[in-house]
Design brief:
The protein is α+β, with helices and mostly antiparallel strands and 184 residues long. The chain folds into two domains: 1-32; 34-176, no CATH class. It is 32% helix and 24% strand. It contains five helices and six strands.
Length: 184
């Protein structure tokens, strides 16, 4: 009887150790499984890839950009199935193109975002378009466009951001984030 108890105890300890090891390895893999996209020359192919561009990004971000007008561009996806997205792009438009893009963005239905992840508004930039939601699905977060009123538009993506909380502050300049934002 003592031998059976010893065997059961050893099996239990071994199973517990194996499951613990699997959980640790899995969490470390997820934490470091990121893909970064910064080549503006590939913008259109990135945009066509649903593993890089979300549906809301396809609504708010421009369909095409002239590469010489893009001042900064960075998208990061997390996990093999791209369940979290963090990114931004800054475009400086020519006068006619700026007004055209502002008009397009103003036609995007604006979602309510105040209170979502503590957001209270935006500082020095004007919010032009906002797609926002907080649910338990993949679409939780923000996709929006800001302007400085001087030909420059900043496009930002924070989808399912609590999964990417360690990186969004490192990737997106603070002045492009909503005031009061807390995804920790």
């Amino acid at each position: 009887m003592k031998n059976i108890i010893k065997i059961l105890l050893i099996v239990f300890v071994m199973v517990t150790l194996v499951f613990s090891l699997i959980i640790i390895i899995n969490s470390l893999w997820y934490r470091h499984n990121k893909d970064t996209y910064t080549d503006i020359n590939q913008y259109e192919s990135y945009r066509e890839n649903s593993m890089i561009f979300t549906d809301d990004m396809k609504i708010v971000w421009p369909q095409k950009v002239m590469k010489d007008t893009v001042l900064d561009f960075h998208i990061m996806t997390y996990y093999s199935d791209a369940t979290a997205y963090t990114g931004y792009m800054v475009v400086e438009y020519g006068e006619g193109e700026y007004e055209k893009e502002i008009g397009r963005l103003q036609a995007v239905p604006m979602d309510e975002y105040v209170g979502l992840y503590g957001a209270t508004g935006f500082g020095e930039y004007e919010l032009i378009a906002m797609k926002a939601s907080k649910d338990t699905g993949r679409d939780s977060g923000f996709t929006y466009a800001l302007t400085d009123g001087k030909q420059r538009i900043m496009y930002v993506e924070l989808e399912y951001p609590h999964l990417a909380r360690e990186d969004y502050k490192k990737i997106i300049p603070k002045e492009y984030l909503p005031l009061g934002l807390d995804m920790e």
